[in-house]
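Running this now, will post back.
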Amino acid sequence: MKKVITYGTFDLFHQGHYNIIKHARELGDYLIVGVTSESYDIERGKLNVRDSLAQRMENVRKTGLADEIIVEEYQGQKLNDIIKYNVDILALGSDWRGKFDYLNKYCEVRYLQRTKNISSTMLRSAGTIYRVGIVTEDGEDHGIVWESKHVSGIHVDSVFSRDEETARSFCEKYELNSYWNDYDRFLEQADIVYVKCPAPEKLEYVDRAVREGKYVISDSPISEDSGVLRELFHRAEERRVVLVEKIMPVYLRAFNQLVWLIHCNLIGRVISVKCSISRDVFGGGNSFDETVVHGVCAVMKIMGQSCGDVSCNAVSDDRGEPVYKVITMKYPRALATIEIGSGLDVESGLTILGDGGRIHVPGDWWNTGYFEAKLRGNEFLKRYSFNFEGNGFRYLLQELMIMIRDVRTECTRLFYEESEALADVMKIINSQSDG
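Update: finished.
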């Protein structure tokens, strides 16, 4: 008898889940289905799970395909289960391709093709599952396809690009349902739109999506004109849809805790903020603007919007491309410095100096999982640690789903007025860089 085992959360059970179980069942004579526990979901960064463990197990039972249902409770359990149940085949979705190849020593590992062309009706029958469409001009997704698997209630479904070949290859690479080079038809297929393309197309795509009543995530900055942004946010309020900017730190628990502790005078009055970013570490495909805006946002979250003076100095290479920028933001009795390097050995980090101590986030601070505080008069460092998984995109998606559920249009992580103030600062920085 050939035994097969497969695993999943199976939250908001839908046709895609059914198909995975069905295809796994076809591989052998006896199927074991492992359903993840609540505690393990939290441990591995699965957010926003809605159905209870009992309900998820019952949904699997109702398929009539599983001979045995077990609970997956900890990392590494798959190997133990393979040995315990004398499993012949481990079957997983193709989105896990390569991640469990090491288990081929113990059984055959099969990656099952992701279900395509799941209709809106099929998805909606599971509850409220929102279809996500991606607007892109390159072949990278910035992690949203993988990260979306850790947030219940959304399904990355389609892609749009003006270049049909780019859209087609993107669709194949990430196993999406459909691709488009007609924006209007693309919008008909999406509930949530993620816009990741250069300006000025970015603003055009965001505006059209909002006008069509779509929830929108956009790389930042959307625009350097605060007046244009104000009109865009007002339009989103009128359409009762969510428009959020992808500035990752503001959605992370650790960064918000850091800001809260500073505002509660943990290190006294802030004297200096120094923020350094290596674009090479920050992530490929991001423009200087998309990198700089993270630093500016961090400074404004810590120091506020009452910046009296902004200056920028830049160094370019032989082709005139910027490789190094230093931005200085002056506040009453305080100073902030943002250093951005590309192709240079810039040591990333964030340090806040107060008259009562300092806080430091080493390395890629925009993915804040922990930080350390050194208080004056205390020789010991205090470390604050928080759960952080993936590249952080799942926490933005979680916040978006909470806003949709609560019927809120303004994001409390990044208020409209903060986005508008960011746009004003970015306009100054770019005018000085161009000059």
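Residues 119-126 have pLDDT under 50 and may be disordered. More later if anyone needs it.
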